[in-house]
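Hey, I'm writing a tutorial for new members on how sequence and structure tokens pair up, and I'd like a real worked example in the thread rather than a made-up one. If someone can provide the structure for the chain below, I'll link this post from the tutorial.
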Amino acid sequence: MDTSFAFLGLTVHAYGLCAAAAALLLLVPMGLLSRRRGLSAGTVRVFGLLGIILGVVSARAVYCLFNLPAFLETYENPWLMLRFFDGGLAMPGLLAGLALAAVLAARLMKAQPGALLDVMCVPMGLMLAALRFGEQFTDLGVGKAVEEGWFTAVAPWLFQQSRMGVAMEYRLNVWAYEAAAGIVLFAATLLAYLWLRGRGEARPGDTALCFFLLYGASQTFLESMRDDGHMMIVFLRVGQVAAALCVLIACGVWLARYACACDRANARVWLTVGGMVLYVAGVALLEFSLDGRLTFGAPSLARDYGLMAALCGLAAALACSLMITLNRRLDRENAPVQASCE
């Protein structure tokens, strides 16, 4: 399904309008924040140019990589991979391309890459919300089927409904959940940015790490709900694997800094490492259960997704707690230095 309409003799695609709005929602706030962050004029413009190119190329490359058999065997025409305007882009590839564009733009404009990544990640949730909103006009964003019951009667707006003869089919309305999550992610990242900016020892790039941590934790859960057959590795979704990697990378950076600040791996480090292992192993086991390859009593979407949400929340909480503790420790260490200077 591709919703489109004619305008001045041109075919306008609804998802394309949402993508254009998403670009504006990213670049306009970036321009405002870059001035406050002291970035040189034109940095965001250079990022915008590189981001469009690298974002689309990377998103298409990731999509084609994991759908290579379709181009080689089903379509029997690998040149179709160059037709990116016909659809087939991967969100993990887009985010990777934008991150690379931020680093390159910062290097070209003699700025700190971490500072530009921070500025990029603050409004990133708004961009994601607009892109997810546009998925309703495509075949994406369709979730697993659920049985009709009291919850579907109380909150029918949470589900996509279609009539199958005399019965009504309910599916999880994942695109709407992810759009709402994007707005929450924007608010949380903005709060993290303001909190970190108020602390003298916050390193450039910490806001970006907060964004990718929260994005990864939420997307690990939300990607599992999808049932659109898009970007799969056996029964695992590529987006879900990429999201889990975001959590582990962000946590790994803070773990390394904390271990260096403490001169050793103490109980706090091992607790966080154990939590990450539990997060990865638990999500994998629950995916086996959701796929029907492993059973824990009677099948239950509510039970499995409840446990998965708890594991994702635990991983995010442990990493955030470690980051807060690390910043407070640095504040205490630098307090005597600041007092002597005064």
